[in-house]
Amino acid sequence: xxxxxxxxxxxxxxxxxxxxxxxxxxxxxxxxxxxxxxxxxxxxxxxxxxxxxxxxxxxxxxxxxxxxxxxxxxxxxxxxxxxxxxxxxxxxxxxxxxxxxxxxxxxxxxxxxxxxxxxxxxxxxxxxxxxxxxxxxxxxxxxxxxxxxxxxxxxxxxxxxxxxxxxxxxxxxxxxxxxxxxxxxxxxxxxxxxxxxxxxxxxxx
Length: 205
Fold this sequence. Notes:
- With 205 residues, the protein is of the alpha/beta class.
- It contains five helices and eight strands, in the order E-H-E-H-H-E-E-H-E-H-E-E-E.
- Helix 1 packs parallel to helix 3.
- The radius of gyration is 17 Å and the shape is globular.
- The mean pLDDT is 93.
């Protein structure tokens, strides 16, 4: 399986609380639900098709609990996202979660990198990470990410957790495909391509 990440981002890089006003108020966040005005049919189709490619899901603890509380309680079998999440294996990285209530969940509490490499070595389509910003940053640092999907929404949120830290690793990216929805959401798929190349002194003459 290849490991893919999918993240909704504002123009200023915020990923927190995108789905609704009460989705994630941690840290005093008050501007949740900022994707709602921009989610059109084309963007929805991309998300549904992404979930349908999943062989399994990998979460950080915070996103796992948000998803379990929403998607894990949904009984509508006709919802393609709920169907994928509720019927396919789920893995969550946590040192403290001991008794997950969402069926099909396995907790990864130790040897995380080695365990994920073993999962990636299994046959199948995609091991998908949704949300889980802290986990994504760690996966990139460990060179475990194969593809990065970014949905960039035309809004500046101005507060909240951002996907990429100001002191994280530097990574070159190769653009695999890109589309823009009628609502102005840019959807880009990248493949990590090692370290970036920087200009050196005396390069211009």
